[in-house]
Amino acid sequence: MGDCSIHPNYGLSMSHYYRLVVSCPDNLGIVSRVSSFIAGQGGSITEASQHSDLESGRFFMRYVILADSIGMSAESLRDAFAPIADEFEMDWSLTDTQQRQRVVLMVSRESHCLVDLLYRWTANELDCDIAAVISNHEDMRSLVEWHGIPYHHVPVDPADKSVAFAEVQRLIDESRADSIVLARYMQILPPSLCERYAGRVINIHHSFLPSFAGAKPYHQAYRRGVKLIGATCHYVTQELDAGPIIEQDIHRVSHCHTPNDLVRFGRDVEKTVLARGLRWHLEDRVLVHGNKTVVFA
Ligand SMILES: Nc1nc2c(c(=O)[nH]1)N[C@@H](CN(C=O)c1ccc(C(=O)N[C@@H](CCC(=O)O)C(=O)O)cc1)CN2
User: Fold this and answer.
1) ipTM confidence
2) Which residues line ligand 1 (CB under 6 A)?
3) How many CA atoms within 13 Å lie on the side-chain side of 44?
4) Where in the chain is the domain with CATH 3.30.70.260?
5) Closest ligand 1 atom number to CA of residue 194
6) Which helix (H) or strand (E) holds 128?
7) pLDDT tens digits, residue range 56-103?
8) What DSSP element (H or E) covers 207?
């Protein structure tokens, strides 16, 4: 009997994985061809997800492969897979979980989402490196620097925002960020940044979109007399709060609640929705399809 304190899968939990994500025109034989290719390389598939969008005729798949079972680098595996991808006109990626994503967080004055993400990152719930935090206010500096993370204060001049966003772009590129998270960052990103980082910027909007886009959604909801409030994690596009939705959740409210009650209830929803959305993004579980997403949660 071995040492029961060590989980029998300990070795696997310390292994790394390749993640193959595919989007392509639906066709017969895709699954067979891809799975046979992986098996032919000796690969062990530990997780397999697929979806056929019958309306658009688009096919989506996500395979997680035990890297040690393949015996080749991610780069070599990409080279070997490329002919199949070309044959099926695939949009695809193959990532190595040992290459942790670099993430830049952006925040204004509301701290709850930032605090929650920093805790989850510290607890190793988020498999990423937080390269920096950028804010248009100084409020969060001590919290962020306590975590040993660089903090950049980039104030935004309402009269000319271009200077600030040029600095934001410089900092994001200097940080070599793979993804950017707007953790209640309350400035509208200019088209130039939306285009430059398309598909890589995640926002948490404090309403159940498409209801109450824009500023002060809880006050809008209170005036409307809603019985549910919510939060939405979505990719950022030029059109405000209209990007592909990654995750949403709700909380029941009633006539006896004040706007401040809605804000308080909403904070808890925002935190969990953003954390789930970011985790799924980091794990390559989110595939964008037009202005919608396929999420292999
Ligand atoms: N290009 C985009 N930028 C941002 C998005 C987006 O979807 N596309 N989401 C917002 C977040 N947000 C709501 O979730 C939001 C933030 C800010 C505003 C707004 O009106 N801001 C004013 C300035 C307000 C201030 O100075 O305090 C502005 O930018 O003129 C609306 C919605 C983040 N960015």
Assistant:
1) 0.95
2) 182, 185-189, 194, 203, 205, 214-215, 236-238, 240-241, 243
3) 10
4) 10-96
5) 1
6) strand 128-135
7) 999 999 999 999 999 899 999 999 999 999 999 999 999 999 999 999
8) none
